[in-house]
Queue: 4 jobs
Job 1
Amino acid sequence: MGTALLAVAAVAAVGIVVARLVSAGRHEAQAEQARLAEEARRRARWSLDAVWAMDDRQFEEYVADLCRRDGCTDVKRVGGAGDLGADVTGLLPDGRRLVIQCKRYAKHRTVGSRDIQTFNGTARAEHGADIPVFVASCVFTKPARDFAARHRLVLVDVDLLGFWNSGTALTSFLDLDIGRSGTNRKLRPDHE
């Protein structure tokens, strides 16, 4: 009987040690995943230095080129005076009409709700967008993201733009929950 109790105690002790090791390993894996995700965001932003150096027209061409790379067809840069909020238009690979508004702002700026509301008023009604997309080289304010979520607008902020620039397909961003994703914290300017 004493040997049986000793064996049960030994098995229990081994079980506790194994459970703690598994838990510690799980926590380490989660911490490593978070670190890798943050590193990917940081690398994506670093690769955007050329974007912040572009003028507005170059930024629109850059976005149009990303659309073409991702299999969009009939892609046109249409931005300019009187564009009514459409800088790039085209068709997604599945045939849906894409209308994109581009804002190439300094990284420490934000795009507010007013810009999003204006785009919402023209993207579908004036341009026949199935998928209205607002691409910015900075972040969107929380009210802008909330408005976009309510009106089914796709927002591509500086983080998503970095991933798009690095090869992630535009279609990967179309179903993101705008109200729950991203950040509205401004980036620091290069020169303070």
Job 2
Amino acid sequence: MTLLTAPDGLVVPPGGGRALQTPAQHVTFKVTGEHSRAASSFEVVVPPGFDVGAHLHTRSEELFYVLEGELDVLAFEPRIRTRQNWREWESPTGRRCVRATAGTVIVVPPGCPHAFANPTGEPARMFFQASPPPDHERYFEELFEILNSGPHVDEEAVAKLRARYDIEQLTPMRMAPPGDAGAAHRS
């Protein structure tokens, strides 16, 4: 008689997981498509001044949980999509971006514009889950290769990467606060 056994679970201790880092981003893979059919999970450190820019995915669902710090966030379709500043967007029902603090959860269904930015002088930390796996983990791996490939970012390579991974960028990604003389813009 053959006994069927359930697969082993996964326990990732504090500080565990594979980390990818650039001066502007720090992502630690906690659960990948190798371990879950439902979602990839990451811990993300959002440095001061980082703005992911408003974007959307037609196939992916995402969940963000703020662990530490503060982030400006939105998850709605605006009345008008302006290209430069998603923080000015307003939904047809009057919703605007909010300041998310520790304990805030943001759920983003497919097709919903969303964004987050760290307007403070301190890093913020969040738990991020993307479904289905492994799209976001592969995206992060390839993005970090581009960002670490030299002193200048190949914007065309980033745009092609985003298109391949179902990311429609609606406003620019920024690595430093607007108005900062040394601001490096990435779109």
Job 3
Amino acid sequence: MTSSTTPGLARFNTSADSDARVALHEVCASSAWGSRLLTQRPYAAVEDLFAASDAAMAELTADDLAEAMAGHPPIGRPKPGDPTSSREQSGMAGASEDLKAEMLELNLAYQDKFGHVFLICATGRTGEQMRDAVKERIGNSPEQEREIVRTELGKINRIRLNRLVEEATA
């Protein structure tokens, strides 16, 4: 991460609202989150963008969180043709068929209990670590889980925003 304005941040700051909205939607599917970040442009530094993201995430309602989660595929089943979800879930790419089957079963049980996909910042995690996390979190209350999801989404958003503002070209 950087502590100054990057070419990617400068481009984001000066891009048309419609283009910036599309870029933000690719980071996070919550329209409330994206609108908040859009209205605060321009950002002097990457840290300011991250702080705005964190503040917007903290204010999301349960419906806003549901909208954000709808943009994430289940762990172990990245969206076909989506390099972002494939990259973020790479810890499952080399998983055994048994682990993939167990993860599918756990994902379904989690979804039955909470009404949404199991969401975790999967970047850098192994398949086993993700399996262990869903096993641990399935015992949470819906309220506990909503706040964990909020935290995990915040981590994912920071990683994705960093990629957005570090890219040298559009």
Job 4
Amino acid sequence: MSEQKLTATPGQTVGPFYGYALPFPKDNELVHPGAKGAIRVQGTVRDGAGEVIPDALLEIWQADEDGSIPQKTGSLVRDSYTFTGWGRAAVDNVGNYTFTTVNPGPTEEGSAPFISVVVFARGLLNKLHTRMYLPDDEAALAKDPLLSSLPEDRRRTLIAAREADGGLRWDIKLQGEDETVFLAYPGA
């Protein structure tokens, strides 16, 4: 019997159709906004020309304040008490997103705390993976294996800015000058 090789079907953009099944109540609130330690993470998603993308969708995964990876179920049922480390936010019509969460702790001694981010948007054949690092521990940022593998000007695209109220601002640019660094995971 001869061996057949199948060719993968090429990806194509057909959406986004996020409004139908993906949004759910409090999807961007990993913690209640009034909870102790709650912070706001916000930013804007832009295309290569610097124009806002009004229909992107972001998902985040993160450790809790102690650096532990949550193992609790209930990500889609927000009870305002259970921190699952996962959230989803659609941008508004001017490309802005916001999450209410906590500052993640480092997952290993001396490592830099970060939030994993996945971007879905029109024109993308596949989702984009990236990270948002907290800006507070410069020594940990300097030692981080991912950040230290990047040229200095590219590193800064992954580091958020701390705002006066304690929240974080991190803008995402999909292409062009100051493009956010995106990651490739084998098999993903």
